[in-house]
Amino acid sequence: MTDLLSLTPEELEALLVSVGEPKYRAAQMFPQLHRGVSPEQMTNIGKATRQKLDGVAAYRLPTVRRRLVSALDGTVKYLFALGDGNCVESVVMKYKYGNTICISSQVGCRMGCRFCASTIGGKVRDLTPGELVGQVIAAGADTGERISHIVLMGIGEPLDNYDNVVKFLRLVTHPDGLNISYRHISLSTCGVVPGILRLAELNMPITLSISLHAANDQTRSSIMPVNRRWGVDELLSACKTYYEKTGRRISFEYTLIDGKNDSPEAARELARVLNSHLRTRSTTMPIHVNLIPVNEVKETGFRRASDDSVAAFARTLEDNGIRATVRRRLGSDINASCGQLRRAEADG
Ligand code: SAH
Prior knowledge:
- By secondary structure, the chain is of the alpha/beta class.
- The chain is built from twelve helices and 14 strands.
- Helix content is about 35%, strand content about 20%.
- The strands form three sheets. It has a ten-stranded mixed sheet, sandwiched between helices. Strands 1-2 form a two-stranded parallel ribbon.
- Helix 6 packs parallel to helix 9.
C-alpha cells in the first residue's frame, strides 16, 4: 500500500493517473495532504476518486499517544504512534522567531552513543519520508500553530536513513506543501562521514550540526562507537569539505559529562583541533559550539558537569577564539530530550 505522504507531487500524479484519474487531481490533493486533510475530508474530491485509491494508497498521520506540556516554557513533547504501532518522540519549542519542532528520524538508533537513551534498545526501523513529514503536520494540527523551523535531533541518526531524510527535506520545503525554508532546517549527525559528503554534493542550504562531544579519538571512541569507523580528523575534514562546497557554517554540539570531557584541557584541545581544521589558509569557517550539560539517563551512569565547569569550559573556548553558548534547556520539567518517553512506553 502506497503511503500518500511519502509521494512528491510528480509521484502522486503518476499514481492517480495509474488508477484512471486526471493529472490535475494531484495538484488538488498534495497541498491538502500536507495540511493534515485526509482524502475523506477533502470537499473537492469525489467518492469515485476515493474508491479508486482504496486498497492502493493510504493516508496515515502519526497519532498522539501522549502529550506533555511544560509548565515552565510551553514546550510540548509528543509521543507519536506510527501506523504499525511503533512510537517516536517529537518536541515543539516556542522561540521568539517562531515554533521549532524537533523530529525523530528512526525508531530507535544503532549508533550506540553511551550517554544517549534513544540507542539503548537498538534500531527497530527507519522512518519513511511520509512519517518524517507527518510529525510536522500532526504537531502543527495539534498545536494549531504554524511550525516554521525544524531540527532533525530527535530519536535516530538522520544520515543512517539518508534517502528518506533527503526526500523528506524536498517534501517539507515544497512550495505547494508546508513550504518550510531550507534555511530554517537543521540536521544533526553523530558523524556519519559518507552521509556528510553526499549531503555536501546536494548543496541544500540547511544547517548541519555535528555532535562532537570530544576532540580526541580516545575519548570520543569511548563514548561514541561511530568514531571508531570515522575518527575526529576524518570527520572534521568532511566538515571542511561541506563548508567549502555549501558555504554554510556548521554548528558543533558538545555534551558535557562530569569527569569525562569537561576539563579545561579538554576545552583547550577542542579549540585547538577546531581551529587547526577549519581555520586554515584556505578555509576560515565561523565556528560555534553549543555546550549542553548531559541529561542524566539512569541506564548510562553519566553525571552532569557542574555549572562551574560548564562556565569555565565556555570561557576557555572563547579565550581561544571559539564562540560558545550554553544551551538553554527548554521543557526540563517534562524531560523533553533524550528518547526516554518512548522507552518508558515500551517498558509499560
Ligand atoms: N543522531 C543525531 C541526532 C539525534 S541526537 C546526532 O547524534 O546528532 C541529538 C543530540 O542530542 C546529539 O547532539 C546527541 O549527542 C545529544 N544527546 C543524546 N543524548 C544526550 C544526553 N543524555 N544528554 C545530552 N545530550 C544528548
